[in-house]
Amino acid sequence: MSTLFVTDLDGTLLGADARISQESAALLRPMLDEGLPLAVATARSPATVVELLRPLGLRTPAVLMTGTMIYDVAHTRCLSATPLARETAAAVCAVLERTGQEALAYSVKGGHLYVYYKEFACDFERSFVSSRIHSPYKTFVQVEHYPEALAGGDTLMFLLALPGAEEARAFYDIFSAIPGLICYYYSDEYGSGGCLLEIYPEGCTKASALARVMEMTGARRIVSFGDNIN
């Protein structure tokens, strides 16, 4: 393999209905069946990606959760993960405890993805979780305290689903000051009016994960498609 083709999902391969169109699937599936090395790189987790990609029969490892996870979509298993340092995850938990802010804390234990939460902080978060909570590829667990829930696993990220940009910016400023983190916040692409704030390990990006996928597949270069600079 010389070239690895990589596509983003939201705003690129997915349409306004957050699905792969029948036309796109019909165009891609024959090429994929013949061995086209196509990977996806997305902020999404296995909970939605596995079903979204099912029409394509994708065999190349996928980069999920903005690079913290490399995932075998065909066999629904985590191949590798890049977690937050334990002291960094503890610092995030301390902020959440101090401010009383709700978050979704993502952790891999035994190769399975768990999401820990306390209470839904707003209607946007409730809606976000309700569309994912029944997935067999990600298990939601309601907890009283984040540190105890995260013990014994690899903490990949924290996600805050906030009602608007003002709240997202305020927490972005707080978490960006913690060493070892990289943060992003953006408006929901599907018109809810809410904002998502993502908190990841510093240095963990789609690009760094794709470098590992290149090693796994033997590719020498990448051709990528997306709607954002990352």
Describe this structure in words.
With about 230 residues, this protein is of the alpha/beta class. The chain has two domains: about 100 residues, HAD superfamily/HAD-like (Rossmann fold, 3-Layer(aba) Sandwich), CATH 3.40.50; about 120 residues, Hypothetical Protein, Haloacid Dehalogenase-like Hydrolase, Chain: A, domain 2. The protein contains eight helices and twelve strands. It has a six-stranded mixed beta sheet with strand order 8-7-6-9-11-10. A three-stranded parallel beta sheet has the order 2-1-12. The protein has a three-stranded antiparallel beta sheet with strand order 3-4-5, covered by helices on one side. The radius of gyration is 17 Å and the shape is globular. The mean pLDDT is about 90.
Question: Can you summarize this structure?
Answer:
The protein has helices at 9-13, 22-33, 46-53, 86-99, 123-130, 146-150, 165-176, 206-217, and strands spanning 3-7, 38-40, 62-64, 69-72, 77-81, 104-109, 112-117, 139-142, 154-162, 181-187, 195-201, 221-225.
Q: Helical segment tally?
A: 8
- Distance from first to last alpha carbon: 24 Å
Specify the helix fraction band.
25-40%
Annotation, overall tally of beta strands: 12
- Tally of individual domains: 2
Question: Topology as H/E string?
Answer: EHHEHEEEHEEHEHEHEEHE
Instruction: Outline the biggest β-sheet.
Output: 6 strands, mixed
Strand order of the largest sheet: 8-7-6-9-11-10
> Proportion of β residues?
25-35%
Any idea what the shape is? globular
**How would you classify the helix and strand content by structural class?**
alpha/beta
**Uncertain stretches:** none
CATH class of the largest domain: Alpha Beta
Q: Mean of the pLDDT scores? A: 91
Gyration radius (Cα, Å) is 17 Å
Q: Give the CATH architecture of the largest domain.
A: 2-Layer Sandwich
What name is given to the CATH topology of the largest domain? Answer: Hypothetical Protein, Haloacid Dehalogenase-like Hydrolase, Chain: A, domain 2
